[in-house]
Amino acid sequence: MKNIFRLLGVIGIIIVTPLFSLSFNDEGSPEELSSAIEKAMTDEQALAQVFMFGWVGEEPSPVIMDWIRARNIGGVKIFGWNTADTLRLAKTVGELQSASLKNPFNIPLIIATDQEGGWIRHVKGSTSETPGNMAIGAASYPRDAYLSGYYIGKELALLGINMNFAPTVDIFSNRDSELIGPRAFGSDPVKAGILGAAFMKGQLAAGVIPTAKHYPGHGDTDLDSHGILPKINVSFDVLWERELIPYRMLAAEGIPAVMSGHLAFPMTQAKDTPASLSSWFLNDLLRGRIGFKGVIVTDDLMMTGATSYLGSLSRTAKQALIAGNDIIMFSNTPLLYDPVWTLLLNSMKEDDSFRKVVRNAARRTLELKLRYLRGNGSVPYIPDPARVQTGMADHESAAFFLNLAARSVTIVKPSPSDSIFPVTKENAGRVLLAGKYGDFFSYGRTAFPDAVFYRYGGTADADSFISLARNADTVIFCLSDSYDLRLLRNIQQLNKKVIVFSVLNPVYIESVPWVSGAVAVYSYAPESFAAGFSAITGRIPAQGILPYE
């Protein structure tokens, strides 16, 4: 009898062990192993894989650690408020991954962020400030896009960040857009697709998963989906031949991930449904007609553009999964038994079709991880602080970004036949430098050591500015937004030589046709200010071309 019980015990071990011996580190193709792990998961474990949360503060919050330890969530999003101290961030990533790797199946987290380059740089600290996408478009070299993606990815990899929500391939089709602007490569869809594909390949070479955004395109609206659901009234034919061209090209190149945007296109089959919640946009069009085979992740579901449509975060999250998203992203961390979790889990138990939707999303997410988060060249789970200290913003990347800034600087006004440039100490007379960025004055002082400065912050004294400009022969004005534009217009009647130094979006130059000259750079990185003043003073030729019509 004892021998029978021993035999049953052995049989029990044989039956039970495979459920718990499966590991992310087992041999096997991503397709086969992801399918095996998904089949071995409980509904709770599968559901957890589709969640990606952010948290507030530099230290990992107790709540997000609870989600990792108790639920083994699939991903974490790094926001700007987590990143002031680079070494602290590296330590945090290590703590998050260490907790995740102790869970069943030893599945690592996707650690994602927004590091587009230029204006959008969520991971701050000692990472590179770069000229950005519109500078790449102005220079027009695919290799610049590749190396931008590579060097940005290399820094993220040192920090253990294995997914980047970039490249941004929105088309610069609405000049009033303050959300996209210099984040776009330009107005040419084919060029955006070529540069986006090059950026993607640079990220992959650094071991980081690239993500094209904001599908199907955020460029043709001056509204911000953080605060409202933009409705973009273009026909499907326009959408197909403009906004969707980069996605068609990137899908053919094998982009691993796409971010769905909270945008409505009433003239398409989706009507007023946000694209991020539309099965027609995600399943029929992106996966079906375009042929995308990767993972779809939502933009932040806590944005008004998402939640306003259904009026509830829980219903929005459920619809996002039904529509075809594989990862649902939230900028904050809810409590463990938040209504979103409860609704989704109960729906899995009550509705077999929804259960299949979630489990398919979990399988695709696991396959993405197995394909990119293990093996040679993948991002290490636990960052090495010594490598972080020595490897961030190295000389090679710094030289590249300076050269990119120089290649992209653009003379917008006057025409090349006119003689306003170069502006030198000898022909400028008394110079006034006016603006709000510290680096503008640092590099301006080098170019014009005797210049008078007018620096303003949140507000400006127009009378003081006018008085200083009246006593100057040449005013070099740093223009970046509509507030600057209003201030600049105060000196139109003085008939001075006025040079606009445009940063970020150069469309504001069109509103001041009376200025003597204008130079455009596309970010407020130090390299961009250095390049702009070098072009103004004739030290380098301005080779960039405005990347929009």
Description:
It is built from 22 helices and 16 strands. By secondary structure, the protein is an alpha/beta fold. It folds into two domains: 2-395, Glycoside hydrolase, family 3, N-terminal domain (TIM Barrel, Alpha-Beta Barrel), CATH 3.20.20; 409-536, Rossmann fold (3-Layer(aba) Sandwich). Strands 9-8-7-6-3-2-1-10 form an eight-stranded parallel β-sheet. The chain has a six-stranded mixed β-sheet with strand order 11-16-15-14-12-13, sandwiched between helices. The protein has a two-stranded antiparallel ribbon with strand order 4-5. A hairpin with a 2-residue loop joins β4 and β5.
For the structure shown, list the relevant keywords.
549 residues; alpha/beta; TIM Barrel; Rossmann fold; eight-stranded parallel sheet; six-stranded mixed sheet; 22 helices; 16 strands; 44% helix; 12% strand; elongated; disordered N terminus
Count of individual domains: 2
- By secondary-structure content and strand pairing, the structural class works out as alpha/beta
Number of strands: 16
Question: What's the total helix number?
Answer: 22
Average pLDDT over all residues: 93
Shape: elongated
Strand proportion, as a percent range, falls in 5-15%
What is the CATH superfamily classification of the largest domain? Glycoside hydrolase, family 3, N-terminal domain
Q: Helical content, roughly?
A: 40-55%
Distance between the termini: 87 Å
CATH architecture label of the largest domain = Alpha-Beta Barrel
The top level CATH class name of the largest domain: Alpha Beta
Based on CA atoms alone, the radius of gyration comes out at: 26 Å
CATH topology of the largest domain: TIM Barrel
Strand order of the largest sheet: 9-8-7-6-3-2-1-10
